[in-house]
Amino acid sequence: MKHAEEFQELWESLVPDGGQAATVQGELIRSVGRLRDEAERNGNANWDEGYELFCDFIEITFRPLRMADPHARERIEVILNRMRQPNIAYLDYALFDELEDYAVDWCKSHPEPIPKPNDPRQYR
What is the pLDDT of residues 82-96, one digit of tens each? Predict the structure, then answer.
């Protein structure tokens, strides 16, 4: 992972101690981090709609990037498709690393905070 330190710094500065982030940048970092945490700590045993919503949010946020960069589009699609298979104790850390790098790059290319309304469906 080329942006491990930056990911952690973004987490600390953008993600609240509990609940959803107030910005798209913060929620992107939170979504990627929560997916990794669930896989590492629980082998996706708690996978439910909340984790599907994280995948949906990531997909929507990255949609313009995926349109601009065919390689990124393909990689993000592969990663999210794998993560949406919760029956597998999904622990391919390299794919989580790659997704975190995409998230850091996205945040760097969007430095101005983008407000994000609260999603009442997201309880994770």
Answer: 888 866 656 678 889
